[in-house]
Amino acid sequence: MAAGDAGSARALSVTVVDACLRGGGGADGGRGGGGSPTAVLDDAPLTDEERRRLPVELGTSHAVFVSAGAAGAPVGAAGAPVGLRFFTSAGELPACGHGTVAALAVLAERAGAERAAAERFECELRTPARTFSGHCVRRGDRLEAMFEPGPVEAREATATERELVLPALAIGPGDTAPGVRAASLGRWRLLVPVRTRAALTALAPDLDRLRQACERTGLLGCYVHSVPDSHGVLAARMFAPAIGVPEDIANANSTACLAATTGAGVGAGAAAGRLVVDMGDSLGSPATVIATTGSRDGTGAGGARVEVGGAARIARVVRWSP
């Protein structure tokens, strides 16, 4: 049934969040607009087919299902761990960065009545793969959420990945910059640098060919990004037709992968590095993702620590019937 049908006894309340708003440190530095519409709701006894259908019917790329980790605890109650499951029209994902930002915004909003406006909300989050922490602070009508996405695996792109994937992206001659890499936070994706924002804007990939290439190589998709400027600001586009997302408005996990592989700010005595990534312009919904990197122990010996996230705003609450 369509969203807004409250006649069914199974009608569920769904919060649509604009996650990773522009203006969280990006080029415009403004109040914040755009973002990636993401559906967030308390988990319910739904089939996987119903979970896949929800983002389609609500016009979001992803849906996030949240559940209490302790029996009888309200979802989002202080101290209670919260489970997260992520779905697109193609099925379940092990992780979703902007979905995590959206979930944190909803949980912080629920806790807001008991907290001072600027007080930091912290929560333990669980996915089927791991447990991690996130935090959120309200600033005006925006909720700024960050989380640690977990250890990033990285390697050189294989010859097969290059041969199948790069032609499907249709990058202009001479526009690819050195350093094509594969990285994973549960699923492998290619990180493909291009020399300029103009080259990124001009991309018109063959999405069907890219889907087939990603399915054959087991890749989640391709994160194509410009070279960071001296302030760590760049632009990116994420193409993931193999999981039902031709182009993602915002992709926090791939941004975290890029931050980890660049190693900005990691090392003895180094201050935390910061990447500010503008996305979504080609889709008419400008978004900004922020990633910070630093050493875990302050000396560089403890390895890299990455946090990623962005600003979010509650857009609307609707009733949806499976």
UniProtKB/TrEMBL annotation:
GO terms for molecular function: isomerase activity. Residues 26-36 have a biased composition (Gly residues). Coiled coil: none annotated. One of its GO terms (cellular component) is cytoplasm. Residues 26-46 are annotated as: Disordered. InterPro entries: Phenazine_PhzF-like. Pfam families: PhzC-PhzF (PF02567). This is Phenazine biosynthesis protein PhzF. It comes from Streptomyces mangrovisoli.
